[in-house]
Amino acid sequence: MLDLRVPSGWFFTILGVILLALGIFAPDTRAALTDANVNLYSGIGMLAFGLFLLAMAWRGRKTS
Amino acid sequence: MTLAPIDYVILALYFAFVLGIGWRLRKKISTSGDFLLSSHGVPVWITSLAFIAANLGAQELIGMSASGAKYGIMTCHFYWIGAIPAIIFMGLFMMPFYYGSKARSVPEYLKMRFDEKTRAYNAVSFAVMTVFSSGISMYALGLLLNLVLGWSFHVSVLASAAIVLVYTFLGGLTSAIYNEVLQFLLIVAGFAPLAILSVLKAGGWSGISARLAPKMVHAWQYMGHSADNPMGVEVFGMVAGLGFVLSFGYWCTNFLVVQRAMAARSMSAARQTPLVGTFPKMFVPFIVILPGVAAVALAQMGAGYALPMKHGGYDYDQVITTLMAKFYPAGMLGVGLTGLMASFMSGMAGNVTAFNTVFTYDIYQAYIRKGKPDHHYLQVGRATTVVGVLLSIGAAYLAQQYNNIMDLLQLVFSFVNAPLFATFVLGMFWKRSTGHGAFTGLIAGTVAAFGTWGLTVSEGKGGVLGNLHEFPSVMAQNFWIAIMAFTCCLLVTILVSLATQPRQEKELEGLVYGLTKIPHDASARWFERPAPLAILAGAAVVILNIWFF
């Protein structure tokens, strides 16, 4: 059966990279009500989550 | 609100992944069971998240954030009282009978436990309701996207329905469940930053409580009298109506959610599914209700946010999207909007997969064509998936044309659903209850619901048959309708059962408490056993209630 952690992991990794790139290369893209670089922080979070899922899937494949 | 090209890229990326998961799972299907039931092969963490996600449709997200703005933190009762206890009960006490009976659906359990007419009544009413609720939520989404982004109603409705159709048609229930997990994660990713940003901007929880009236930031303190709180409901109506009758009726008997648990690998996995699901469920209020509450505080601060208006009143349904527009820059805005689309799809796929199973097994196989080879039912299941989506689209357009008919239909559905839990609880825990008892009880409960509605008035509406009592709010009226329906169904079922011939005990093995061996999984680690999980979930939800007391 398909290990769902692989596609979900890739999805969040790609999403994280897109947001991180926006946060770094277009830091002036801000929303009206916040001064925070929202794309940068959420990008880091999603990238970390995506890589975590991929690492779990990789570890699972090795042990089984 | 306008989207940048990058937001469309993110939306497209999400569509590619859901379709890709459906494509990858298409080869696993060779029997009707593979397609409609997932053949009991899905791991627990996946069934648990799908169990929660199938219920977390777009209407729920939009509606709960709207209620957060309208009623304040009391809205959490829909989760902490109106869901968690029922989910725990379902995992501990009801799943052994659903899973152990080897029934393929909830109506089929009713057939095994009671009789053909009880199953037929439940199957047909469930199938009709599922199609309409899927259509109504499609309509709500199309309307919102049209209002917020200016997208065409037709394009939003047809495109999102087409994507759901493709991945459920390809991979059946497994594909729906796998995608529900991705959708759940995406909903959290798209909504959690909004909750953090809006609450921080409003000065944290202390800033919010300082700005809003106390009754908006306490869940229980103002529930002594219905007049004191914004919902117009008193403690008994809340706990008995919502917390007991409505929530147990939904979480313990609705095939849409029960189906997710039934897809689990083993009996113990099936019992763990709802129990593990309580943990994400109890924290959902923090990402959907909290932004709604924060929005009211923000509007009072005059910091550049105003509550959305329509026809001179507040339009709370737009709270979540207007907040996104104010807090999310291009990029994250795409993620937030994709999260909204994901919630819509998880709700719709849930409806479609429950509909095709009940139609194929409980209507087609039971009454239209019996005894065909399995391959035939696989094809019927696939065809029903297409028909189900088409009917939902039809219902969405019907809702667009005739709004009042939809309100009326939802009212009728609530009358049919209200007594259900009484039937199931007697069926599972009282071996003396009979098919005639169950059937007359259900009818009597629905009639009682209609009677209560017809004889009472709330907010100046109702009272079609007379006016015996006035409720302070429609919500209070709904809770009391449920209480009356449940009580009536319970009494009638007991009386008729005692007057009719009980079934042989041998026929009820595996279906009723006391005649079913519930396997004790001795090899399971403590956190995989139902009782410790239930205690942990119960304790956590008590702490949350005290925190926001």
Please sum up the structure shown.
The complex is a heterodimer of chains A (64) and B (549). In chain A, 73% of the residues lie in helices and 0% in strands.
List the helices and strands and how they pair.
The complex is a heterodimer of chains A (64) and B (549).
Chain A: H1 5-25, H2 38-63
Chain B: H1 5-24, H2 32-37, H3 44-53, H4 58-71, H5 77-80, H6 84-100, H7 106-113, H8 116-149, H9 153-201, H10 204-211, H11 214-217, H12 235-253, H13 255-262, H14 267-301, E1 309-310, E2 313-314, H15 319-327, H16 332-368, H17 374-401, H18 403-417, H19 420-429, H20 435-455, E3 456-458, E4 461-462, E5 469-471, H21 474-499, H22 530-547
Parallel strand pairs in B: 3-5
Antiparallel strand pairs in B: 1-2, 3-4
Question: Would you write up a description of this structure?
Answer:
The complex is a heterodimer of chains A (64) and B (549). Chain A is an all-alpha fold and 64 residues long. Chain A has helices at 5-25, 38-63. In chain A, helix 1 (5-25) runs antiparallel to helix 2 (38-63). Chain B is an all-alpha fold. Chain B is built from 22 helices and five strands. In chain B, the strands form two sheets. Chain B has a three-stranded mixed sheet with strand order 4-3-5. Chain B has a two-stranded antiparallel ribbon with strand order 1-2. In chain B, a hairpin with a 2-residue loop joins strand 1 (309-310) and strand 2. Chain B is globular and about 70 Å long. Chain B starts with a helix and ends with a helix. The model of chain B has no long low-confidence stretch (mean pLDDT 90). At the A-B interface, helix 1 and helix 2 of A face helix 1, helix 9, helix 15 and helix 16 of B.
